[in-house]
């Protein structure tokens, strides 16, 4: 089984989440509520400590009104 | 807590995986081996039955030599 380092996607997602949330002037509480997720879970995603699933990625993308692909793209 | 339907991302990912795998003439066994994943797991992802994590999404993207964002985009 190939050893793969911790996915760099976590850091990209964390950066894009913080950026998109700041653009909207939203707290973590607000984004968590809009996405129907727990704030501490969202906080862990923003610290790259959470191996988030695509169902939850979709909920966050919907809340921010962006595509999921956008969340995984470093602009 | 907002009720969110099963994420449409699963179907997009499933479609793009089958497309990209076919383009390379790869079997599920070959892609699973390249990504260091279990074939039955990959098969479930291709049937939209698996709520895949971004770490595993990254492994598949690496194996196919595409961006993770590409895997979540319906072209």
Automatic annotation (TrEMBL), chains A, B:
A GO molecular-function annotation: DNA binding
Keywords: DNA-binding, Transcription, Transcription regulation
Superkingdom of origin: Bacteria
PROSITE patterns the record matches: HTH_CROC1
InterPro entries, per the entry: Cro/C1-type_HTH, Lambda_DNA-bd_dom_sf, TransReg_Diox_bact_type
Domain HTH cro/C1-type: 17-71
UniProt keyword DNA-binding present: yes
Gene Ontology cellular component terms for the protein in this record: cytosol
Keyword Transcription regulation set for record: yes
Coiled coil residues, start to end: none
CDD domains named among the record's database cross-references: HTH_XRE (cd00093)
Protein name, UniProt field: Transcriptional regulator
Lineage start: Bacteria, Pseudomonadati, Pseudomonadota, Alphaproteobacteria, Rhodobacterales
């Amino acid at each position: 089984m190939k050893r793969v380092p911790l996915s760099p996607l976590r850091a990209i997602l964390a950066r894009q989440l913080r950026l998109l949330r700041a653009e909207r002037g939203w707290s973590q509480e607000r984004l968590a509520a809009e996405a129907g997720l727990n704030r501490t879970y969202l906080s862990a995603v923003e610290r790259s400590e959470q191996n988030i699933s695509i169902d939850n990625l979709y909920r966050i993308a919907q809340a921010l009104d962006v595509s999921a692909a956008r969340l995984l793209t470093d602009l």
